[in-house]
């Protein structure tokens, strides 16, 4: 039977609405890569194809799960055993093409599970996708309308700050910004391909660079003068979270602001971008 050591295992993650599926689908076009199939699993996420650890729904689901301390899995959890690693691999294996060298598992909660997964699979590599917090909040709110924008942005910050601290202990980690993925797909996917040591390019067609504009227009409308109370609430939120968000290279009021100087601030609470 195929073993984890026979393959390069890759875990992709990022909050719901961050573009993880987009990245994974492009990786799956490469002849050396197999992405979990799992047609019956929501989003083809590996978390729904196993019974080893709880799914994010156990902690509130999208927009909430990272707030629950139990969702932050590390090497200190009781589930970290060699037998656990083999059991988990056996549950995923039927949904992979095991003739491929690179096996990709994607799940949103992987963002705050890197240390746990690394302990199970010490040679694993991690590719995390980061997207503007308001875009992620609006994408999440579209499906979960009871969650307020301010809470969703706070969740984005909490999840990414947890991931940032974990990243200090994860050597094989590559960060992809969604905004760069859709505007410079060839360059970004080439970087991912190099990181995964793939032979030949990762196909880059099918990106929609204008998809970012949709949420920026929605945000401008949301905080427009037509709704003065809402605008005041947005201003308070921007003031409250501005400094923490800027550590990740973003500004709440500007979807185009990416600060390259912020990409190596892991020690100060921001994900280190490789």
UniProtKB/TrEMBL annotation:
GO terms for molecular function: protein-tyrosine sulfotransferase activity. The lineage of its organism: Bacteria, Bacillati, Actinomycetota, Actinomycetes, Streptosporangiales. PANTHER family: PROTEIN-TYROSINE SULFOTRANSFERASE, PROTEIN-TYROSINE SULFOTRANSFERASE 2. Gene3D superfamilies: P-loop containing nucleotide triphosphate hydrolases (3.40.50.300). Pfam families: Sulfotransfer_3 (PF13469). Keywords: Transferase. InterPro entries: P-loop_NTPase, TPST-like. This is Sulfotransferase. It comes from the Bacteria.
